[in-house]
Design goal:
The protein is mostly beta strands. About 0% of the residues lie in helices and about 45% in strands. It has one domain (about 10-70). The protein contains no helices and five strands.
Length: about 70
C-alpha cells in the first residue's frame, strides 16, 4: 500500500518502562506525505490523552514511535 493524505493508520505508542502505559496503537490520519520512498508522513494522532501532530517514520511491524497499516479484518 502507498501512504497518501487522508488514510487511516496506526501510530504505535512507546509505552512506559514500568508498564503504567502500554505500548499500543492509536488511530491516526495521514495529513502530509514527507517522503514517498521511506513513507515518512505527518500524522494527526488521536489518543485518550489528547490530540497531536507528529512527523513519523513507517515500520511494517508495530514499533514504538512509528506508524503502520492497521491489520486486515476478516
Amino acid at each position: 500500500m502507498k501512504a497518501s493524505i487522508g488514510r487511516i493508520v496506526h501510530y504505535q505508542k512507546y509505552g512506559t518502562p514500568g508498564g503504567e502505559h502500554k505500548a499500543e496503537p492509536s488511530p491516526a490520519i495521514i495529513t502530509k506525505v514527507i517522503n514517498e520512498e521511506t513513507q515518512e508522513v505527518q500524522l494527526f494522532v488521536m489518543n485518550p490523552n489528547g490530540l497531536y501532530f507528529n512527523t513519523t517514520p513507517y515500520s511494517a511491524e508495530p514499533k514504538g514511535g512509528h506508524w503502520n497499516w492497521p491489520p486486515m479484518m476478516k
